[in-house]
Each structure stands twice: as C-alpha cells, then as structure tokens.
Amino acid sequence: MLFILGISQIIHVPHVLKALSPHYAYELLVEYPHGFWLLGAVFLATTGAEALYSDLGHCGRRNIRITWVFVKVALLTNYLGQAAWLLHQTELIGRNPFFEIMPIWFLLPGIGIATAATIIASQALISGSYTLVSEAMNLNFWPRVAVKQPSESKGQIYIPSVNNILWIGCIGMILYFQSSTHMEAAYGFSITVAMMMTTILLSYFLIYKLQWNKFLVFSLLLIFVSVETSFFIANVAKIKERWMFLFFELFIFLTMYIWFYARKINNQFTRFVDLGKYATKLSELSSDNEIPKFATHLVYLTKANNRHEVEEKIINSIFAKKPKRADVYWFLHINRTEHPYTLTYDVSELVHDKVIKININIGFRIQPRTELYFKKIIQELAKENELNLHIRPDGSTKYNTSPDFKFIIIEKFLSVENEFTLKEGLLLNSYFLLKRLGLSDERAFGLDKSDVVVEQIPLVYQPANHIELIRNK
Questions:
Q1: pLDDT tens digits for 243-263?
Q2: What secondary structure letter does DSSP report for 146?
Q3: For residue 281, is it within any domain?
Q4: HSE on the CB side for 243, CA within 13 Å?
Q5: How many domains does the chain divide into?
Q6: Mapping DSSP to helix (H, G, I), strand (E, B) and coil, where does residue 155 land?
Q7: Burial class of 403 by CB neighbour count within 10 A (0 to 12, 13 to 18, 19+)
Q8: Which end of the chain is more exposed for a tag (fewer CB within 10 A), N or C?
Q9: Structural domain of residue 317, as residue ranges?
C-alpha cells in the first residue's frame, strides 16, 4: 500500500527523486540557519524498523533479513510520494500528506489498514518486551517472573507481569503526554539512546567475536556514532518540559542494575560440597532414635548440576540447630531443556537407601509440577522394587493414608548483624524487596504449600565488628 501510494504521486513529479541525493541533506545542515535542529523534527521518519527486530522471537532471523529491504524501499517511496504531493500544494494547514495522497474511494480502507498496522506494531513491541525480559532473566538481570509458552516455539512466550507493566505504562504515558506532539521528543530521545547502545555493542561483537580489524571497526563506529550523536543532540534540545518519562527508564535500569549486582554478592555465599563427605553422618542421623523424626521423606531442591554435590546451606539445614532426621534424604534438581515437551528423569543412589538424587528434565512448554513428578517417581521406583522403597514405610499410618513428604525451601534474608555502606545497604535491601515481589519458589517449582517448609537463613555480608559495650558497675 505504501509503495503504490508513493508511486502514484512520484509519476506526476519525477524530479522529486533528486531528494535521495545526500548533497541536499548536507546543504540543509550546513547552509540553512536552523538546519541542524530540524533533525529533531524529522527524526521519527528514520524509526520504525526496530519493530521488525523486536519481533525476532516470533518471526525469525531469515524473515527479517528478507523483509527489511522491501520495507525500506516501500517507506522511502511513500515519503517521496508525500514530498511530490507537497510540491504542488498551496494550502497545507490542517492537512495530512499521508492520507491526502490516497484516492477518495480508498480513504476508509486506508484508515483501516493504518489502524491494523498500529495494532501489529504494538504487538511487536509487546512480544519484543517479553523476549527482552526473558533474556534478562536468563542473564540474571531481572527478577524471576512467571513465563507462559503459548506455542511449541521457544521464542514465543507470554509474561503476564510484563503485560501489566506495559498496560499501566501505556495509560500513564497517555495521561502524561496527552498528545503525540508532546511525545515526539521523548520517543526520539529513547530511540537514539537505543541506537547508540546497539552501535557500541555491535563494535564489541565485531572485535571480540568475529575478530575484525580494529581500525575497520572504529571507522564504522565513527560513522554511525557521528550520525546518532547528531540526532541525539537535536532530540535532547526538544525536551523542555515533559521530561519525567525518564523516571520510567530509570526504573528499568535500576531494576536490572540492582538485580545483577546484588545477585552477584548473594552468589558469593553459595558454596557446593561433596555429599560423600557427609554420607556416614547422614546415615547416623537417620538411625538416631533419640532425635524426633522430622519427616519420612525429606526433599531438598538443589541447583547443583554435579551428581555428587549439593549446596553447603542444605547440609547446614540438615545438621544445624535442631537436626532434621528422616528415613530418606532426597535431593531434587530441575533441568530446563530446549525441547518443548521433554519430561524425563534419572535417579542416583549416593548413600544406600538413605541419600538419593533425582534429576528431572522438563521441557520449556511444561509448567513445573515438581511435587506431582516426585510422587510419581516414588511410585514407579516402589513398583519396580528399587531402592527398597517397596518394603520401606512411607510415613502413612492407620490414621492417615497420605505419604509423609516434606519439601524444604531455603531463603536468605539480610541479617541485622550487617553494617553496610549506603550503597550496599540500598542495593541489597532493594534486591530482597524485588525478590519478594517476584515469583516465589513454591509457585516456580509447582509445590503445594501444605507440604513445604520455608527455612530462613541470614545473609551476613558485612558484619558489624566495631561494637563497644560498656558494663555498668
């Protein structure tokens, strides 16, 4: 539609094609008194292609590569067609060139197609936001949130919380800016920042991944940065009053910054230990009748990929303070696979009939139901007469037929023993606040709250050492 409308006007004023020459752009910038500042007014004509890239997860790379050239030609043709129409008009006030170049009979269908294109573009923004947040979670830049898979393609996802943020943000932007004219500078500013970031990241990619010559990369970088910096300056100059949109961008940046760096601090205190060192101690604890039984089957969720390892905090949870006696200690590791419907498991007996590790492989389209899977695995092992589970009591009694399972989830909290600098205090307190707002471990792993014990352990990062207590005499 854009291409045909543009051609229909160009054929009347073919010399408008001269506008493609960079010579005229240079003259406008250099010779016209306010030419440079006009960049801010025309900048939005250079945007729109980023919507193609934001839909990468849905459309795929090859689709975008083929489409890009066609879209570029169609857009340029339409812009030149509008310019051709403008050249033979005398009265322009209140008239929109885009709709004016449409024939009268096509006006209503044209408005319908433009509206549909707006909806499609907003869908690209929404799905692009899902992709970005999903990748941010994988790179530990965003709190864990619920992700749904509407199709068998891993790239097609739905994130309810992001959808809600976009909805609230959209309503807020409409109320704040009130008209698209007020929004031009904010949009231009955001897009130019995104362009500059993309250029810098591309240069890193070319140097460190593709091993391009640094001189060639810096030459390309200089060309792109000079253009983008010009656009950036022209757009910043237009932001005079409605600058509070920056708080929304600051919120996103701070969320990512806090989550990444606070999680790094948190991970410093995550240590893995060899279960073999504690085999004898676990067997003794399991058989010690002087200690009240905590559960028949005690199940810990572990992040350890290695068959023989678990987190040190799990060992501390079992032995520290009131030891947790159980007949069988289970360590469950959840592994997400690249295939949509994988649902397999393997079992390793680390200490005979006492310590067992299970790896469950779950496809990306399957919502985890860890407790259900675990009970199913126990039934299968008992049915196959493995691990003595068929002769071992499962904790049920004549008063209660349900097996006795307890799932332990270990969560950290900031200890009062810490003595932070201002930055560390803000960073870690904000991190734990975001963690509470994110998806809980019970929901993430699909556990029934009635069978879960959440154990709180203190995170002591900077213990207060300089405490002077004076005894009264």
A1: 777 888 888 889 999 999 888
A2: -
A3: yes
A4: 7
A5: 1
A6: coil
A7: middle
A8: C
A9: 272-459
